[in-house]
Amino acid sequence: MTTEPGFSTVFIGPNHSASLSVSDAFTAALGEERCYNVSALSRHKSSELPSPTEQLQQECDHILALPQFPVFINSHHPLPLHLFMKGRDIRYITIIRNPTRRFISYYHWAHLHKDLDYHWIAPAIRAGATLEQYVDYVGATGHYPGGLSPCEYFTRNWVALGLVPDELKGHLTGTARYVLETYFSVVGIAEMFDETLYVYSRAMGLAEPPRWKIRGKSGAGGLNTIPEGIRAKIRKLVEPEMVVYMHFAQQFFQRHRKEIEEFKALGISLRIEGDIDNITPFRK
């Protein structure tokens, strides 16, 4: 097996952060035969989740058995694949979204599809909770959208597998910043989606950025449609995630100023018509 162009890019895509649009765009641009979609974990119920080491072993076994090592690996699950792929150049990229918007997007998506048999749909939403009731539910239970807060999403497996210094353990925002700054070559921003795709494409050595479509609308609408009292409650809940988001949003501008200016000079939009209203969050 050979790896082209000398390294493989692993895209870690958090839910409700336009990650499906990213993975679809690069799969279409590169060709399915050069891509791999990490989906095994989605077949497990929450009570049956394998350990991080078992998850890694399952996915790496699948990848290593492919006739050609993939150039682009897409995963909703933050697995440090490089641990089981010694000798291969694995580079991680991800995207983060304003946590208030992500929270609201999750609620509306889950409310629309509350009858789906997915463990990350909160019981309160299945029972018909309003947005404000769901906000209060999260505050009382700590059950964040998708089961994990965005900070914990990026850190749980990396902490469990010994990839975070002991002194940072238990420090949620510090651990998230450490993981993202240490292991990820690009942390994109959903609110600058075209620019993020352009930066990804440059980091991957592609001749041109991929085109994209909206995938799986939540129907949330704008923030201004949400009463300020509810927005204030959400902002309070996501304060740690907002710290991390603001840090990396500023860092995105600083680190990728050249690419952002290059893209701006092109005067183009990467979005193409034909949104995909597919409610299935994982390709089978």
How many helices? The count is 11
Extended strand count: 5
* Helical content band: 40-55%
Q: How would a textbook summarize the main sheet?
A: 5 strands, parallel
* Category from helices, strands and their pairing: alpha/beta
Radius of gyration using CA atoms only? 19 Å
Shape: globular
State the end-to-end distance: 24 Å
Q: Give the spatial strand order of the biggest sheet.
A: 2-3-1-4-5
Please give the CATH architecture.
3-Layer(aba) Sandwich
Just give the CATH class. Alpha Beta
Ranges with pLDDT <50 over ≥5 residues? 40-47, 278-284
Q: Could you tell me the mean pLDDT? A: 86
Order of helices and strands: EHEHEEHHHHHEHHHH
Structure, explained:
This protein is of the alpha/beta class and 284 residues long. The protein has one domain (8-266): Rossmann fold (3-Layer(aba) Sandwich), CATH 3.40.50. The chain is built from 11 helices and 5 strands, in the order E-H-E-H-E-E-H-H-H-H-H-E-H-H-H-H. It has helices spanning 19-30, 52-64, 99-112, 123-126, 131-141, 150-160, 172-183, 193-203, 228-237, 239-255, 257-266, and strands spanning 8-12, 35-38, 72-75, 90-96, 184-189. Strands 2-3-1-4-5 form a 5-stranded parallel β-sheet. Helix 2 (52-64) links the parallel strand 2 and strand 3 (72-75). Helix 8 (193-203) crosses helix 11. The two termini are 24 Å apart.
